[in-house]
């Protein structure tokens, strides 16, 4: 009986140690699985998938106010790609009070992971954009119907910083430039200031993540 007692105790100890080993291996496998899931291509659906932004920008042609709507396209390891669509109202640098524009901008950003980790973090990204919009003035700087031709186009790029100050709020700082073009602007009589004109731009504002 004493032998059976010792065998029974040995079996209990063995089973306890074996169960602990299985549990430890399961945890390690689970951690490895989570690490694998974090790597490679993954969906942009997370707690920073969608954002609303408001910022102002100034360049060598005009000053603007932008209302922005953005969402994350995808993540790949520590790389993220996002899409931002903006409505832009601008005032051309000129004494004429008629020289305004209203446009739409599509921007794509490419950068490192954008997340708030409990303290202020900074994500960096490059971007490319193109814009299309309407002029409120004729070549003689008099007013015209906003949505009639001619129109303007812009294309360009730059670099930016997302300064994450909380889970939902980030400060935006961007530097860039591009080309502003009014098709057939020279023939129509528009000044070189807005027709095939290069520009540099700085933008400052904020984004709220939903």
Low-confidence stretches: 1-12, 14-27, 29-37
The sequence of SSEs as H and E is: HEEEEEEEEHE
Question: What's the mean pLDDT score?
Answer: 83
Q: What fraction strand? A: over 45%
Overall morphology: elongated
Strand order of the largest sheet: 2-3-4-5-6-7-8-9
Structural class: alpha+beta
Termini distance? 69 Å
Task: Give me the count of strands.
Answer: 9
**What is the count of helical runs?**
2
Estimate percent helicity.
Answer: 10-25%
Query: Cα-atom Rg, whole angstroms?
Result: 28 Å
Q: Biggest sheet, in brief?
A: 8 strands, antiparallel, barrel
SSE layout and pairing:
Layout: H1 2-38, E1 41-43, E2 50-59, E3 62-76, E4 79-92, E5 100-112, E6 121-135, E7 151-164, E8 169-181, H2 185-188, E9 197-209
Antiparallel strand pairs: 1-3, 2-3, 2-9, 3-4, 4-5, 5-6, 6-7, 7-8, 8-9
Structure description:
- The chain has 210 residues and is α+β, with helices and mostly antiparallel strands.
- It is 20% helix and 52% strand.
- It is built from two helices and nine strands; from the N terminus they run H-E-E-E-E-E-E-E-E-H-E.
- Strands 2-3-4-5-6-7-8-9 form an eight-stranded antiparallel beta barrel.
- A hairpin with an 8-residue loop joins strand 5 and strand 6 (121-135).
- The radius of gyration is 28 Å and the shape is elongated.
- Mean pLDDT is 83; it is low at 1-12, 14-27 and 29-37.
């Amino acid at each position: 009986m004493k032998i059976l007692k010792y065998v029974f105790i040995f079996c209990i100890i063995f089973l306890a140690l074996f169960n602990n080993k299985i549990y430890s291996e399961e945890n390690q496998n689970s951690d490895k699985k989570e690490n694998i899931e974090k790597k490679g291509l993954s969906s942009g659906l997370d707690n920073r998938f969608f954002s609303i932004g408001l910022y102002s920008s100034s360049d060598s042609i005009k000053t603007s106010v932008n209302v922005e709507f953005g969402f994350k396209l995808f993540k790949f390891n520590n790389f993220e790609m996002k899409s931002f669509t903006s409505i832009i109202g601008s005032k051309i640098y000129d004494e004429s009070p008629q020289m305004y524009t209203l446009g739409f901008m599509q921007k794509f950003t490419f950068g490192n992971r954008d997340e708030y980790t409990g303290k202020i973090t900074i994500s960096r990204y490059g971007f490319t954009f193109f814009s299309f919009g309407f002029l409120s003035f004729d070549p003689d700087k008099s007013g015209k119907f906003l949505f009639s031709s001619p129109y303007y186009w812009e294309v360009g790029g730059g670099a930016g910083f997302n300064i994450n100050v909380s889970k939902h709020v980030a400060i935006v700082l961007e530097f860039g430039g591009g080309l502003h073009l009014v098709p057939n602007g020279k023939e129509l009589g528009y000044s070189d200031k807005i027709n095939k004109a290069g520009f540099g731009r700085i933008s400052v504002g904020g984004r709220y993540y939903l």
